[in-house]
Amino acid sequence: MSQSPSTNSPTATLTGLRTLVDAPHLLWLDLDDPLSPTLDDLAAKYGFHELTVEDCRQRIQLAKIDYYDDYSFVIINSTHYIKDPCEVLTREIDVYLSNDFIITVHFGRSLSIDEIAKHVQAPNGHRLTRPDLLLHAIMDIVVDRYLPTLDHIGDTIDDVQDELLLNPQPKLLETIFSLKRGLLQFRRAVASQRELLNAIIRDQSPFIQDDMTNYFRDVYDHAVRAMDLVETYRDLLAGGLDIYLTQMANRTNDIVKGLTILATIMLPLTLITGYFGMNFEYMPLLKDPYGIWYISIGLLLISAVMLIYFKLKKWI
Known about the structure:
Blueprint: E1 17-23, E2 26-31, H1 37-46, H2 50-56, E3 64-67, E4 72-82, E5 87-97, E6 101-105, H3 111-121, H4 131-144, H5 146-166, H6 170-202, H7 213-276, H8 291-312
Parallel strand pairs: 2-6
Antiparallel strand pairs: 1-2, 3-4, 4-5, 5-6
């Protein structure tokens, strides 16, 4: 089986197009620039519907499968996690699938496509001799990468929760909302991918043989597991948000309690000092040389008694 690009192939000169497998009953073409005229040339050659070409050129499309007479059109969602800022990027791999060819279309280089191509082209690599086998390999590697992405998100959530307990800061609130937004984006991608796999398992596609059902069901199980983890992490973030709000409320209560105690102590002191501050000629202790000390000691005693009382009542 020859798996190197054929220099005599009419597709070899098309911009951005790679021939990853060229063998009897299997042709794998890969295009990393959907905006180029190469996609129009492929559509004209193989009779691809214009709506599928339009979907290829849209950067944000959820996973789905469309059936046509001579081929099936599949959109696969892959994800990439960026920790700072917390964001989940969704990319798509568009696939044209037929009985004797598979054409993958995506923006820029795809690590998943490159890894499978390297594996297939290796001298001792596994021979994927059918287009549906290649489709399964692509979907399998894409879904398997969901879990490492979720692991990174889970590690970030653990760090946020630890910091929430030790030192809750307003910046953590921004991180929590970024994670919630990222998980929402991730959930949309995983949910559509799960429905795509369910459709492949349920429907009888003429380009996917019956013996592949169990293999796609295994990928479906991985997608369901990823979906469960997404829901778990969303609950953890909701709990983290509750922790933050509770910590902030407790801190506010402590501040208000301290100010209330201070105001309560100052109330009798203000009353006494206000009383002796009246401008009368004859007042108790007014002529006494030690009067100021009597009043000062009395104020201190009142403050001490009130603090002891608050302590006994466990208000402080």
